[in-house]
Amino acid sequence: MSERDAPNANDVQGTSAGRMKVATILDSHTFHKAIISLTFVDVFCTLFGLIYLVLSSNCEPESEWPWWLEALDRVSLGITSIFLAEIPFSLWAFGWKTYNPFGDHPYAGLHLFDAFIVISTFALEVGLKGAESEVAALLIMFRLWRFVRLLGGIAVGAGDLEEGRSRDLEEEIEQLKSKLDNLQSENSELRRRITEVQS
Description:
Blueprint: H1 17-26, H2 29-55, H3 67-94, H4 108-127, H5 133-140, H6 144-198
Helix pairs in contact: 1-3, 2-3, 2-5, 2-6, 3-4, 4-5
């Protein structure tokens, strides 16, 4: 799955083993599934909190909120923190080209947009308290964009996988053709010998 161009020894000179390992982890199916799951949990927490605040009959101060609403708020902040921590690791592993929308990386604009959403959401969640913090929660809806982006990465990765399989099969076909040519030559030689012996 190659949504981002993971560094490899041919593309990046002096790439450290640690950087390669982080790039491999960030670009793995498991990591993408975890991000998708966290995004849905975060959206659930946010929507549930917003629905409760909108439907509650009175506008309670934060100190009178139910404990579970505070728990949902903390879970959402924790998930945002995880997304925030991913950004510097991604920058280190994949480089600035991943976030440069004017470069040649096909998903750079999406990565930049995603980073902007995560950073602004974190700043607003930490900076605003009480019901005002629910305004910041609306930004979480933009994180569904991350899901769309990851699906695009999965599609690109599947294409890369099929392309790799196709190359492998072509190489195998060439090897088999070569073996067939050798066997046909050997067979012709053996037939010639048999004909000579019979004569």
